[in-house]
């Protein structure tokens, strides 16, 4: 019994040493985590979740890095636009680690990264907003275009150097400082009045040109119609004169045919008439001696 009780502390020490050795020679990778492993000055990255083994410290060292999406919320800053309008803007952004090894060697920890990225984001914010005019920022697609430009500029600045990537940049507030609001509104009003005057002037000029063109076309059409009418009147007059001359030439024959038609109409009815043979239309029944005598 005494031998067993004397061996108990030794067994406990062995178990504790094994546990400590296991802890020193292993590490775990969780979901949304990466481990930078440094062994004899050489670095490697482990991204597979689960239990992994390594050489004990100080030969090998494992450092966990959280790869979840990180959120940055900036403070309001007064930045002038390209047309010297002072605007107060605040942006927020989200980013994540794409290259844990590059992130570890350039930015270090997440806390260090937040402070370093703050200056980079603010620099990009000022660069982009200074390149925009007030009308560009407050147009229909102004905010969307500005946020897209901010996202592209930030990724160009840091993606190749820090092992991170921005996937969203948004302007959370955009306002005019109270001290400059009246001046800006007055300037906007003057510019709108000027633009309206220019638009009205261009519209009146265009309308006058259209009226002049319409009057010119109208005069041309009327002149052509008048010329065509004169031509047709001349042609009709010639035709009438020719027909009249033909009618005079055969006037006796035409009169004879008319009388025959009238006589035919009267003779359709069963009627007995006592008339002088010299009565018109019946005079065609008389012998035409006068005609032969004339010939």
TrEMBL record:
<dbReference type="InterPro" id="IPR036013">
    <property type="entry name" value="Band_7/SPFH_dom_sf"/>
</dbReference>
<dbReference type="InterPro" id="IPR010200">
    <property type="entry name" value="HflC"/>
</dbReference>
<keyword id="KW-1133">Transmembrane helix</keyword>
<comment type="similarity">
    <text>Belongs to the band 7/mec-2 family. HflC subfamily.</text>
</comment>
<dbReference type="Pfam" id="PF01145">
    <property type="entry name" value="Band_7"/>
</dbReference>
<protein>
    <submittedName>
        <fullName>HflC protein, putative</fullName>
    </submittedName>
</protein>
<keyword id="KW-0472">Membrane</keyword>
<keyword id="KW-0812">Transmembrane</keyword>
<dbReference type="GO" id="GO:0016020">
    <property type="term" value="C:membrane"/>
</dbReference>
<feature type="domain" description="Band 7">
    <location>
        <begin position="24"/>
        <end position="188"/>
    </location>
</feature>
<dbReference type="InterPro" id="IPR001107">
    <property type="entry name" value="Band_7"/>
</dbReference>
